[in-house]
Amino acid sequence: MAFVSAMVSGCSRLNLDASSQLAEAQIEPFVTHDGQERITASQMEKLSDRLMRDLDDECLGWFRRRLPWGSYGMLARASITAPNLRIAMQRWCRHHALLTEDIQLVLHEPVNPLDSPATVTLVEANTGSWLHGSMREFCHVSLLRNLLGLSSWLVDSRIPLINVDLAFSPPTHVDCYPVLFNGHCRFGQASTRMTFDRRYLDLPLRRDESALRQMLQRALPLTVHTYRKDRLLVSRVRQILLYQPNTLRNAQLLAEALHLSVRTLHRQLREEGANLQALKDDVRRERAMDLLLRTTQPIKKIALAVGFDNDKSFLRAFRTWTGKTPSEVRVQPSDQ
């Protein structure tokens, strides 16, 4: 409801009484003062759609000048012809600066190392005294959610966030933020930004103009609901298993590293046609082969390093994987 209050504040700034719009969304005006109250996604969609049209302002009074109805649709159309998510996000951020000078969105992708995350940072400029409190919070949250939702839709994949930094103190309704950003929120930061695995930027776009026209008829759900499918989940699981060997022993640790529950992890892997045990075995075999051929470590130590409690279990698994014992592989590397 705090976000509804922010929308009403934007209307007041633009001299619009929002009573009829609230009534249409079945929201009592007096309830808007209670930031702990909740509304449904349907109510949020109905209210924001009506207000944006009546105000002819898709930013709902955040900025010094209106963003006429269709502005964000125009940004989506400019992005959808990109070959991959990287170009699409770059276009969105660049073209957003043409709509307003009050807020800039900046995509940053470090050159090295390869596993460094990408970030989208929100930079405020000339925002004026009106953008504060719940109105500023709603602006920041909406801009990040809009871009995250559209990006996920463009590549038809969940884009899990590593962190979300927010340039304001924790609000009284802080418990709703895990729903908005999967629980990766840090308040009171120097700037508002979201951080994610840069490999998602390489994903090709999977939508066309026809899909875009259909989506724009009901765009708000993209900013409310999160994707379940993750097109990089198998790759991310493999990477964590390789570089955090303790996760080979404990599915809970692996799930926590992915910011998922164990049940959700298993379900999403099944949806991608994979299973955790097979991925673990693949990583264990790969690491074991590497240690056998590149080091002189004892078999027992290698067994522990690849997640086995004892060398007997390791020997049985290794023979299943390769048809040979670790000692045979070590003395006959040319056969591998």
Structure description:
This protein is of the alpha+beta class and 336 residues long. The protein is built from 16 helices and 5 strands. It has 2 domains: 159 residues, no CATH class; 103 residues, Homeodomain-like (Arc Repressor Mutant, subunit A, Orthogonal Bundle). α7 links the parallel β3 and β4. The termini are far apart. The model has no long low-confidence stretch (mean pLDDT 88).
Biggest β-sheet description: 5 strands, mixed
Rg calculated over all Cα atoms = 25 Å
Total number of beta strands: 5
Q: N-to-C SSE series? A: HHHHHEEHEHEEHHHHHHHHH
Unreliable segments of 5+ consecutive residues: none
Shape: elongated
- Work out the strand percent: 5-15%
Map the helices and strands:
Layout: H1 2-13, H2 19-24, H3 41-55, H4 71-79, H5 85-99, E1 103-108, E2 118-124, H6 133-155, E3 161-166, H7 177-181, E4 185-187, E5 192-196, H8 209-216, H9 220-224, H10 233-243, H11 251-257, H12 262-271, H13 276-294, H14 299-305, H15 311-322, H16 326-331
Parallel strand pairs: 3-4
Antiparallel strand pairs: 1-2, 2-5, 3-5
Helix pairs in contact: 1-6, 4-5, 5-6, 10-13, 13-14, 14-15
Which characteristics define this entry?
single chain; 336 residues; 2 domains; 51% helix
TL;DR of this structure?
This protein has helices at 2-13, 19-24, 41-55, 71-79, 85-99, 133-155, 177-181, 209-216, 220-224, 233-243, 251-257, 262-271, 276-294, 299-305, 311-322, 326-331, and strands at 103-108, 118-124, 161-166, 185-187, 192-196.
